[in-house]
Amino acid sequence: MRRLLVASLSLVLAAVALGAAPPALAAAGGPPDPVVFVHGANAGPGVWGEMRADFLRAGYPADRLAAWSYDTRQSTNEVLAGRLSAYVDQVLARTGASRVDFVTHSLGGLPSRWYVTFGGGADKVAHWVSLAGPNHGTHTAWACALVNQGCRDMTPGSYVLKRLNAGDETPGATRYGTWWSPCDEAVAPVSSTALEGAVNSRADTCPTHNGLLTDDTVSRQVRAFLART
C-alpha cells in the first residue's frame, strides 16, 4: 500500500510540474477538505501567509483554509493536543466537512501527531503534512529546554517522542507526508523529520528551516499530496 502511494504521488507531482491542476480541485467532486495550518515554535498563524495565498490561487475556497494559534511553550500532548481537537471540531462544524487536512511546520507536527495518534483524530484527519518537523527530536531544542515544555518535548528521547515513535509511526488511515531540507539549520539531524510509512520528500531547492514555508516547489508538492484520496 505504501509503495503504491509513493508511485501514485510521483505521478501527481509530475502533473503539477507540468502545470496541471491538482486532481481534487480539477474534478467536480465538491470542495476539498479544509486545511488546518499549524505553526511552529515562537511563531503564529501569519507565517502561513504565502502558502495560504498559493492555496487560494490553486482554487481552494478561503473558508476552507484555517490556521490554529497556540502557545508553543506548553505541553504538546497534555494541553495542546486537546485544544487542537476542539479547534478541529469547530472547523468541521463551520464547514460541514467530515475530515480536515493538517499542514504543520516544525514543532506543530508534535501536537498534531499526538491528536491523530492518541487524541481521537484518526477518523477526522485525512492527510497530515510535516514541514521540517522534529519528529525524532532535534538537538537544538536543548537550548530552550529549561525554559518551556514545548522545547523539552522536541529534545531527542523526550516522553512525547518516545510515545509517538513507539511501534507504528504512521498509524491509522491518515496519509502522512514529510518534507525536509539538507539546509535546515534548526532540526538536527535533518533526518529527524522522516517517518516510517510516510511519503518522505527532500526539498531539492535546499530552503532553510523557515524557508520551507515559502518555497514554491514545496507548496505545489504539498497541494498535490493533499489531493490524493
What does this structure look like?
This protein has 229 residues and is of the alpha/beta class. The protein contains 8 helices and 6 strands. It has helices spanning 2-17, 23-26, 49-57, 76-95, 109-118, 149-154, 159-164, 216-226, and strands at residues 35-38, 65-68, 100-105, 125-131, 175-180, 199-202. The chain has a 6-stranded parallel sheet with strand order 2-1-3-4-5-6, with helices on both faces. Strand 3 (100-105), helix 5 and strand 4 (125-131) form a beta-alpha-beta unit. It is globular and about 45 Å long. The two termini are 13 Å apart. The model is unreliable at 1-24 (pLDDT under 50).
Quick check: average pLDDT? Answer: 90
Major sheet summary line:
6 strands, parallel
Strand order of the largest sheet: 2-1-3-4-5-6
β content, as a range? 5-15%
Structure class: alpha/beta
Please bin the fraction of helical residues. Answer: 25-40%
Low-confidence spans: 1-24
Number of strands: 6
What is the count of helical runs?
Answer: 8
Shape: globular
Q: In sequence order, what are the helices and strands, one letter per element? A: HHEHEHEHEHHEEH
How big is the Rg? Answer: 16 Å
The end-to-end distance, rounded to whole angstroms, is: 13 Å
